[in-house]
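Protocol step 6 of 9: fold each sequence in the batch and record its structure tokens directly after the sequence line. For illustration, a two-sequence batch is reproduced in full.

Sequence one:
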Amino acid sequence: MPRLLEFLFVRHRHNWGLLLRFGVVGVSGVVVNLVALKLFELAGPSYNTVWLDLPATSFNIRWYHVFITGAFVVANLWNFQLNRGWTFRSAASSSSWLGEYVPFLVLGLGALVLNLLIVTVLMHPGSPLALPTDVFDDSSALRSRLSWANLIAICAVTPLSFVTNKLWTFRAVRHVGRPGATRPTDSVRGR
């Protein structure tokens, strides 16, 4: 047991710090996402109406899919900038902004697909997991069915997002905190 605790909390303490910063950025991103979602909802048609029927199927894309996608784009840029500059501190490394943003966006789009699937399950009236309309009746911001479905989906997708971003998007910082390793920004900052 002591070896496991040492492995988790001593050897990987840098990862816990990254996870904490990623979480702080994530919480701010959730706020940005929810605000953007609400603005799209206020500016657009009823979120539950059909935006596009998918040809030759009984499926369709509803306005809430469009609103969530728009909110994702805003929050994705927000989160990337904060993660790049603060969480993983890769902004001062040799990695280009676009070189890191493309994988971040690709992973984000994967997370968006999962998010949209979860939201659809929570919003579809025929789903056994649909949020109850008697509780989430859209009578106030705290009872917004769309906001709660989006928030639940974000919480479900976040752990996967952290791991994949750490291992792929911001890979330059993977070895930070290991014995003998230096931070990618050490040479830039003159340490």
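Sequence two, same batch, same settings:
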Amino acid sequence: MIRILGIDPGLNHTGWGIVEAEGASCRRLASGVIDVPKGETAERLGTIARELTQIIARHAPTEAACERVFVNVNPQSTLLLGQARGAALCAADLAGLSVEEFTPSEIKQAVTGSGRADKLMVQEMVMRLLALDEAPRSDEADALACAICSASMHRLRALEKSGGTSRIYATARRGASGRGARAAWTSLLAKKGEKP
């Protein structure tokens, strides 16, 4: 069993969620949003780091997962998001947690089946996957989705390790073209004597 802390960093609102994953099952232990008060940037980043440190101490996750920064249209927003992410990563590392990082589209793909899902779809699917009574706040749902994505990657790696699959067939690698992924599937089926 692994206990994963998912983090959706933000300078105004940092979502967090802890899930326990065992085999194919995943359940939420705790989740919420750190609503960062207005003030100087250093104080706000300190708030994120301190709050996450307390959350880690309270719930004892075994590892963490965090959303990668994407380049925004506004460079200032990207910079501030990167700083919030840095505070979150530091808190996880200082607590001795290894951190997996996923792009927003990888996280959406893992929980909704589409890398282009909107926030409402992510909230709805997180609620269903974790059997929650109500949809979590958007930032909280994104953090839980990040943890679910990490749990899915653990299952895939376990399958690879057991010899049950090879990653080239299980999922397209980052940067791989759709044609390359299709060619890999076609090759696998040909080896098994089946038609694509």
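Proceed to step 7 once all outputs are recorded. Observation for sequence two: The chain has two domains: 2-165, 167-196.
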